[in-house]
Amino acid sequence: MNAILEVKNATRRFGGLVAVDDVSFTVPSKGVTAVIGPNGAGKTTLFNIIAGTFPPSEGAILLGGADVTALKPEAKAARGLVRTFQLVKLFQDLTAIENVKVGFHLKTRGGLFAALVQPAWARNAEKDVEDGAAALLDLVGLSKVAFSPAAVLPYGQQRLLEIARALAARPQILLLDEPAAGLNAEESERLAKTIRRIAADGTAVLLIEHDMKLVMDIADEVVVLDYGRKIAQGSPDAVKKDPAVIAAYLG
Ligand SMILES: Nc1ncnc2c1ncn2[C@@H]1O[C@H](COP(=O)(O)OP(=O)(O)OP(=O)(O)O)[C@@H](O)[C@H]1O
């Protein structure tokens, strides 16, 4: 198996509390991997360790085989690990397509400065960016609202837009933090399809999620946490039947 991400014996303590306790797993470079667990299981803490919000107290994070444990989120993003936020952070005054274009400009030669001042070579690249942004909006099902300001989009569409913008940075692995939170059934359905398409296009997806149904529908591999420890890992079907998982969710 070709792993894009390795979590090796990650532990995180807050004072006397062990929020993440010696957790290890690998994320293959293809497919959808989900981390689930009851409230307080340590999902958000693990996610923050992986994204670089804060380092683990012990253990290591490897990205493409390289140790990135101590790197900040921006440095990890530059190496291909890109996250979306639970709290939507879009440019509210920009249109949907402009928001995605910003994602491209942060990665392409000109950067944000060129995007604003537009030298000739940046203008030539502009058409590619426009086409790329339109394609990403199509991927997440937002073509119809391309020219609406982000501020007027319903919450669920803003979340999908954030995914499109994250993809503009061409991540090798996309981290999604509770992507279904606050979505209605139709939006959840759209999200599930979008995540499957992202994975089919060759980007590894790692998500943490409360919504068991979404996870069971889209994940290839599921990691289950409880009280900071990994209590199970396997296919959605295997995990669903695992007595330790059933006990954790009922208990
Ligand atoms: N900054 C912090 N300081 C102290 N304790 C913390 C901190 N962050 C998290 N914790 C504790 O660590 C444990 C794991 O929390 P975490 O938020 O990672 O779990 P979770 O699985 O994401 O939960 P939820 O599903 O409710 O979001 C909890 O007991 C929580 O109270």
UniProtKB/TrEMBL annotation:
| Entry's Gene Ontology cellular component terms | plasma membrane
Q: Name one GO biological process term.
A: D-alanine transmembrane transport
> Is the keyword NAD in the record?
no
CDD domains per the record?
ABC_Mj1267_LivG_branched
Matching InterPro entries, A to Z? AAA+_ATPase, ABC_AA/LPS_Transport, ABC_transporter-like_ATP-bd, BCA_ABC_TP_C, P-loop_NTPase
Record-given protein name? High-affinity branched-chain amino acid ABC transporter ATP-binding protein LivG
Gene encoding this chain? Answer: livG
Q: Which residues form the ABC transporter domain?
A: 5-250
Any Pfam family from its record, for instance, is BCA_ABC_TP_C
GO MF term set: ATP binding; ATP hydrolysis activity; L-isoleucine transmembrane transporter activity; L-phenylalanine transmembrane transporter activity; L-valine transmembrane transporter activity
Q: Which keywords fit this entry according to its UniProt record? A: ATP-binding, Nucleotide-binding, Transport
Domain of life assignment: Bacteria
